[in-house]
């Protein structure tokens, strides 16, 4: 129950931070005021209302009623029109996603491999803040992008923990409670480290310094652009075209842009502040590690549990690599990438064809030949060499697998 609640809460945080940043970008770029605290609370209330209702209904019409009620309430808020329209758009979007959740029987979607929408939005919003000289947008981009990535990691952690508990449900004597306590301590430590980072960054003026530095870089890019335009106009003038007024305007714009930039001192102050922040973070990190070792030793001493019995012989083998570092190392390994290439291609080829969990790679190959007219013999052979033959996988081998997957028609 707690793990399911955590999975949903982390997903709420992930989508909430993404939408707040998206709405800030849309408001500030068109020269509107930034989001008010009331708008942020209304946005959070929309998420909580839809997340709560979709857990207690089996039909879609209550979600429609909630959407209409929230939309009417938003319309009468004391906010600017664009802000109300964005909140209504979120209201409709939550109706769609909640309806899909109800129709799927309460099944949460699998998270992506990387949070690329949040990272892409963070990059675009930072560039927009620098280009339009909106310093507050740069600050929001950094803070909300980091928070978005953090919630995404929590989503992966909660999903992985749920799958682990499901996989070890037949194991008796498993110290799951101790593992949860230690893992929760790690998550709490990471969260505290993030809060310390944000607090120290504010005290040292890191957001302002970084914003000024990015503003200087944007100014340099503008100056470079003016310089290229000026060079082009000079060349045109040499070739016989006479437009002295246009050349003077470009020269004045270039001179004005260069006059208001002081790159040297700004760069030095940014570097000094970042170095100070890194030193303080290192000390805070060492302290948290020391505190974690003490608490972990306490749990190990008070809870001595061992695996006494299992009805599934493969569980003991899987428990060897249950720590987070091992799972991450396995996920980014070449062998795991080869497995994902094979699995993705098989699922694309299967489409409506049903595959059983106990089917071997040879069985899958024959089923696809029979029902989908797809021949994955070469890809299957390459994958079997990875899984059973112990072949060394490198980038060239992965490219061979990708090319083999494209040659699907007999």
Give a short overview.
The protein is 77% helix and 1% strand. With 410 residues, the protein is mainly α. The longest helix is centred in the last third of the chain and has 40 residues, at 263-302.
- Determine the number of helices (DSSP H or I, runs of at least 4 residues): 16
The side-by-side strand order for the widest beta sheet comes to 1-2
Given helix and strand content, the structural type is mainly alpha
The number of strands is: 2
Radius of gyration (Å): 28 Å
What's the shape?
globular
Overall pLDDT: 76
N- to C-terminal distance: 49 Å
The biggest sheet, with number of strands, parallel, antiparallel or mixed sense and barrel status, is:
2 strands, antiparallel
Strand portion: under 5%
Helix content: over 70%
Could you spell the SSE succession in H and E letters?
HHHHHHEHHHHEHHHHHH
Low-confidence stretches are: 304-319
Structural key phrases:
410 residues; mainly alpha
Task: Please provide a written account of the structure.
It is a single chain. It is built from 16 helices and 2 strands. It has helices at 2-29, 37-53, 61-75, 81-103, 116-131, 135-167, 176-204, 206-238, 244-259, 263-302, 315-319, 324-331, 334-350, 361-372, 377-387, 395-406, and strands at residues 171-172, 309-310. The longest helix is centred in the last third of the chain and has 40 residues, at 263-302. 21% of the residues are buried.
């Amino acid at each position: 129950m707690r793990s399911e609640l955590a999975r949903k809460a982390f997903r709420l945080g992930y989508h909430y931070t993404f939408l707040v940043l998206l709405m800030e970008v849309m408001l500030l770029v068109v020269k509107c005021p930034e989001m008010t605290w009331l708008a942020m609370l209304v946005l959070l209330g929309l998420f909580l209302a839809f997340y709560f209702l979709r857990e207690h209904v089996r039909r879609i019409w209550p979600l429609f009623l909630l959407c209409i009620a929230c939309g009417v309430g938003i319309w009468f808020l004391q906010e600017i029109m664009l802000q109300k329209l964005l909140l209504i758009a979120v209201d409709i979007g939550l109706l769609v996603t909640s309806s899909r959740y109800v129709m799927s029987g309460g099944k949460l979607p699998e998270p992506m491999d990387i949070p690329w929408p949040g990272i892409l939005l963070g990059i675009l919003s930072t560039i927009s803040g620098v280009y339009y000289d909106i310093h507050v947008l740069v600050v929001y981009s950094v803070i909300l992008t980091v928070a978005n990535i953090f919630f995404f990691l929590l989503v992966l952690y909660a999903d992985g923990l749920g799958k682990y508990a499901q996989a070890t449900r037949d194991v008796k004597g498993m110290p799951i409670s101790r593992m949860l306590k230690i893992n929760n301590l790690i998550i709490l430590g990471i969260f505290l480290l993030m809060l310390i980072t944000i607090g120290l960054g504010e005290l040292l003026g890191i957001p302002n310094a970084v914003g000024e530095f990015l503003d200087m870089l944007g100014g340099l890019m503008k100056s470079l652009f003016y310089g290229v335009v000026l060079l082009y106009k000079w060349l045109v003038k040499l070739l016989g075209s006479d437009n002295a007024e246009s050349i003077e305007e470009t020269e004045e714009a270039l001179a004005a842009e260069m006059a208001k930039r002081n790159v040297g001192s700004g760069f030095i102050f940014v570097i000094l502040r970042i170095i100070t922040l890194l030193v303080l973070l290192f000390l805070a990190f060492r302290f948290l590690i020391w505190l974690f070792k003490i608490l972990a030793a306490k749990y190990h001493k008070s809870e001595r549990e061992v695996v006494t019995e299992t009805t599934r012989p493969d569980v003991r083998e899987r428990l060897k690599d249950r720590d987070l570092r091992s799972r991450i190392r396995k996920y980014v390994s070449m062998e795991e990438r080869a497995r994902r290439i094979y699995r993705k291609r098989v699922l694309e080829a299967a489409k409506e064809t049903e595959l059983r969990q106990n089917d071997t790679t040879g069985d899958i190959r024959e089923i696809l030949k029979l029902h989908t007219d797809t021949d994955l013999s070469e890809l299957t052979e390459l994958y079997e060499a990875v899984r059973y033959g112990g072949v060394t996988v490198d980038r060239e081998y992965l490219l061979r697998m990708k090319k083999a997957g494209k040659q699907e028609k007999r």
